[in-house]
Amino acid sequence: FPQDQTPQGQSYCNVMMRCLWLTRPVCKPTNTFIHAPTSQVQAICRGLGRCHGRNFCDSNSSFFLTICRVAPGSRPGHCVYRGRVQTRKIRVACKQRLPVLFLRIL
């Protein structure tokens, strides 16, 4: 997948950020969407990831991601996002063997 911004990524970001109410009362600066079945993301915390400490686990495999970042000049209710697609490994926080928070791209 291209690492550059794409019109498809931008359209996806604008629609999804609005649908998830991430554009009010402020434009959320960034959000990462993981395109995978829930079971694959859960597997990171259930032995198919490399865990550090008590609750940070890194995926062993890569995931298809869309990273949405707010464009300069955006304002609540009229947020414009730039989308970038990547295939990368990720780090999540786990609790009771379930992912509870996306932490970062590795």
From TrEMBL:
The alphabetical list of record keywords is:
Disulfide bond, Endonuclease, Hydrolase, Nuclease, Secreted
Cross-referenced Pfam families, in alphabetical order? RnaseA
Q: Name the principal localization, coarsely classed.
A: secreted
Q: Where in the cell is it found?
A: Secreted
GO MF annotations for this entry? endonuclease activity; hydrolase activity; nucleic acid binding; RNA nuclease activity
Q: Does the keyword Glycoprotein apply?
A: no
Name the CDD domains for this protein.
RNase_A_canonical (cd06265)
| A cellular component annotation (GO) from this entry | extracellular region
**Can you cite a GO biological process for this protein?**
defense response to Gram-positive bacterium
Give the Ribonuclease A-domain domain ranges.
3-106
The record's section on PANTHER family has: ANGIOGENIN-RELATED (PTHR11437:SF10), RIBONUCLEASE (PTHR11437)
UniProt similarity note: Belongs to the pancreatic ribonuclease family.
Q: What is this protein called?
A: Ribonuclease A-domain domain-containing protein
Identify the species of origin: Gopherus agassizii
